[in-house]
Amino acid sequence: MKVAIVGTGYVGLVTGTCFAEVGMDVTCIDIDQKKIDNLHKGILPIYEPGLDEMVKRNVDKKRLHFSTSLKDSIQDAEVVFIAVGTPPDEDGSADLKYVLAVASSVGEHMTHPLVIVTKSTVPVSTAEKVRKALAEQLAKRGSNLDFYVASNPEFLKEGAAIEDFMKPDRIVVGVDRPEAEELMRKLYKPFLMNGHPIYFMDIPSAEMTKYAANAMLATKISFMNDIANLCEIMGADVNMVRKGIGSDARIGTKFIYPGVGYGGSCFPKDVKALIKTAKENKYDMRILNAVENVNESQKEVLFDKVKKHFNGDLKGKKFALWGLSFKPKTDDMREAPSLVIIDKLLKEGASVVAYDPVAMNEAKHTLKDTVEYAMDMYDTLNKADALLIVTEWPEFRVPDFDEVSNRLNEKVLFDGRNIFDPQDMKKLGYSYYCIGVRTN
Question: I want to staple 103 with a disulfide (CB 3.0 to 4.6 A). Which of 123, 129, 130, 291 is the partner?
Answer without folding.
Answer: 130
